[in-house]
């Protein structure tokens, strides 16, 4: 394999003009919409009912004529007519890999890949690893779940960079710290909350991540923390390492987008995904740069094409050229549509609450949000931990938190509950549960 001395994994692809990128997108869009119509029973029926046909795609904007799909569509068509269901566009014999979603919003859904789909998936992962600076002289620990999780195979993409790869999986913290201390890896990928907690555990066990370990880069995904400046800085301060956020969907592939060195959003693989932003309530298509719900159309995935898939993620896309030289758009993800709540006519995202809390020196950074109704009005309470050794009273810490959140959100929590260091049960080896919606509980 020839030595790549460029900062780009594929310079031609990553730096092509917007005009060339969109020309290629249109060609792939026309092909995949026709393929979906010809081979996936759901799309044939759906397009016919909507009165549209693949030949209607003359420009990228013409995709707006086609109907949306979502997680509900996936669940309702899964297993219908065949094991892979009505959204699948290839016979099962052509499928070499499936992953499944976590099922956190309903029945777990499968994501199938042909051999070509899987190869292009890993080529994209290699591109992201190279983008954050992974090189053949690195040692990499893939500390992600391998059990049906779409991010598990991403380690294969890391191997394509030539790095030495350690297939860690979900090791217990003590064992993972042993791996980090013994094998001296330079790069690790895990969730943001776990990266922070692992650093805390290292310090409590007498290991200083900055001095005793060799981690130079931390990749995080699965939660929003990596794109929250305060959270990213908190992790970087513990480890003395650069933190980069990745974004993926089980519905498409492991990481669909990743930060570059400028950390101004996440470059999304626009050669694989056509991005729209729509009004979460009405579905109206919004101009690029507007905040709304992301709608993705897969351009090259043939096992199960996704045509106008409503992701449920809220954010915006910047399609201007990045300072790094890459031309593929950068997405900025604010949070999940389902997680957003409205207080006094203000849209509140848990990511904004996290950013406020992680910027306060007197608290550990752990938090829990409780959403409830009082007198027919939405309220929220925040539970936090006071750092050990802080001499301020609980009331004084609560006042600091309230003031910080009011300044950031425009509304303040109805209540701030202060726990001692370690008193909140939010630490997790994987994703941390930080929202309890008691409105839902009351309805049920």
Please describe what this structure looks like.
By secondary structure, the protein is of the alpha/beta class. It folds into two domains: 1-336, ANL, N-terminal domain (Rossmann fold); 341-443, GMP Synthetase, Chain A, domain 3. The protein is 31% helix and 24% strand. The protein has a twelve-stranded mixed β-sheet. The protein has a four-stranded mixed β-sheet with strand order 19-18-17-20. Helix 5 (115-131) crosses helix 6 (154-160). The longest helix has 22 residues, at 18-39. The radius of gyration is 22 Å and the shape is globular. The mean pLDDT is 92.
Question: What would the keywords be for this entry?
Answer:
twelve-stranded mixed sheet, alpha/beta, single chain, Rossmann fold, 13 helices, 20 strands, 444 residues, globular, 2 domains, GMP Synthetase, Chain A, domain 3, four-stranded mixed sheet
Can I get a quick summary?
By secondary structure, this protein is α/β, with parallel strands linked by helices.
């Amino acid at each position: 394999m020839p030595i790549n001395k460029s900062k780009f994994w594929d310079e031609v692809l990553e730096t092509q003009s917007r005009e060339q990128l969109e020309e290629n997108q249109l060609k792939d869009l026309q092909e995949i919409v026709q393929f979906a119509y010809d081979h996936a029973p759901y799309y044939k029926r759906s397009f016919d009912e909507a009165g549209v046909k693949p030949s209607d795609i003359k420009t990228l904007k013409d995709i707006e004529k086609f109907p949306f799909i979502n997680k509900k569509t996936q669940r309702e068509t899964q297993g219908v007519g065949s094991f892979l269901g009505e959204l699948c566009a290839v016979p099962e014999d052509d499928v070499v890999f499936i992953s499944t979603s976590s099922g956190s919003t309903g029945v777990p859904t499968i994501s199938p890949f042909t051999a070509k789909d899987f190869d292009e998936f890993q080529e994209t992962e290699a591109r992201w690893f190279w983008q954050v600076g992974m090189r053949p002289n690195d040692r990499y620990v893939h500390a992600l779940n391998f059990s049906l999780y779409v991010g598990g195979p991403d380690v294969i993409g890391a191997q394509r960079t030539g790095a030495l790869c350690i297939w860690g999986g979900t090791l217990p913290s003590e064992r993972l710290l042993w791996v980090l201390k013994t094998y001296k890896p330079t790069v690790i990928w895990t969730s943001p909350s776990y990266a922070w907690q692992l650093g805390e555990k290292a310090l409590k066990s007498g290991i200083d991540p900055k001095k005793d370990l060799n981690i130079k880069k931390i990749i995080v995904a699965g939660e929003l923390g990596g794109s929250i400046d305060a959270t990213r800085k908190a992790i970087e301060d513990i480890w003395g390492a650069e933190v980069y956020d990745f974004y993926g969907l089980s519905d498409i592939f492991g990481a669909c987008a990743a930060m570059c060195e400028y950390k101004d959003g996440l470059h999304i693989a626009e050669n694989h995904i056509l991005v729209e932003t729509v009004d979460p309530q009405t579905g109206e298509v919004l101009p690029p740069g507007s905040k709304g719900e992301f709608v993705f159309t897969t351009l090259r995935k043939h096992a199960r094409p996704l045509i106008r898939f409503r992701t449920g993620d809220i954010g915006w896309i910047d399609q201007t050229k990045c300072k790094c030289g890459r031309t593929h758009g950068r997405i900025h993800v604010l949070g999940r549509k389902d997680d957003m709540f409205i207080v006094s006519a203000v849209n509140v995202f848990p990511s904004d609450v996290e950013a406020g809390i992680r910027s306060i020196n007197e608290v550990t950074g752990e938090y829990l949000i409780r959403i409830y109704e009082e007198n027919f009005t939405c309220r929220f309470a925040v539970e936090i931990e006071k750092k050990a050794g802080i001499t301020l009273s609980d009331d004084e810490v609560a006042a600091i938190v309230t003031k910080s959140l009011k300044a950031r959100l425009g509304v303040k929590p109805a209540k701030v509950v202060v726990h001692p260091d370690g008193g909140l049960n939010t630490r997790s080896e994987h994703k941390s549960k930080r929202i309890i919606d008691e409105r839902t509980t009351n309805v049920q």
